[in-house]
Amino acid sequence: MDPNKITAVMDANCALCARGAAWIARNDLDEQFQIVPVQSPLGEKLMRAEGLDPADPSSWLVIDAAGTHLGLEALIVAGAHLGGIWRGLMVLRLLPRPVRDAAYGLVARNRYRVFGRADLCSLPDAQVQRRLVKGNVG
C-alpha cells in the first residue's frame, strides 16, 4: 500500500462497489487512488481500525491526508479528490448528517439484492486492476 495515495476500501463482492471502483479508475486521471478490497487482510485491518466489522462491510472507507471518511462522506470526499463535475457531490453535505447516514445505510443494507454481486478483483478493467492492492498487511 502506498501511504501517499488516497485509499478506497470497498466490498469486493458488491456489484455497486465494483461500479464505484470503475468510476474512480475512469475519473482518477492523476492516479492518486488505490483500491483495497475489504476481504483482503489489509482491508480487514483498515476496517477494524475504524471499529467496523469486515465480515459485514456495510460501509466503504476513503482514507486521505485529512483522515478516514465513511459511507456517503467517503463518496463526497472521493468526488472532491477526483475534481471537475464530481466536486458537485459536495452538495450532499447540505443534507443533515443523520439523513445522509440513513440514506447510505438503506442502500448499503440492500446493495446485494438491488445491484447484485460481482468480483471486484476479477474485473477485466485494466484501470481498476492497476489500482487494486490485494497483498497482505505489512
How would you explain this protein's 3D organization?
This protein is an alpha+beta fold. It is 42% helix and 13% strand. A hairpin with a 2-residue loop joins β3 and β4. The model has no long low-confidence stretch (mean pLDDT 86).
Features:
138 residues, four-stranded mixed beta sheet, alpha+beta, 4 strands
Oligomeric state: single chain
Write down the overall geometry: globular
**Beta-strand percent range:** 5-15%
Q: Count the strands?
A: 4
Q: Helix count?
A: 6
Structural class: alpha+beta
Spatial gap, N to C terminus: 9 Å
The level of helicity is: 40-55%
- Spatial order of the strands in the main sheet? 2-1-3-4
Q: Helix and strand succession?
A: EHEHEEHHHH
Task: Summarize model confidence as the mean pLDDT.
Answer: 86
Task: Itemize the secondary structure elements and their pairings.
Layout: E1 6-10, H1 15-27, E2 33-37, H2 41-49, E3 61-64, E4 67-70, H3 71-82, H4 97-109, H5 111-115, H6 126-131
Parallel strand pairs: 1-2
Antiparallel strand pairs: 1-3, 3-4
Q: Short description, anyone?
A:
The chain is an alpha+beta fold and 138 residues long. Helix content is 42%, strand content 13%.
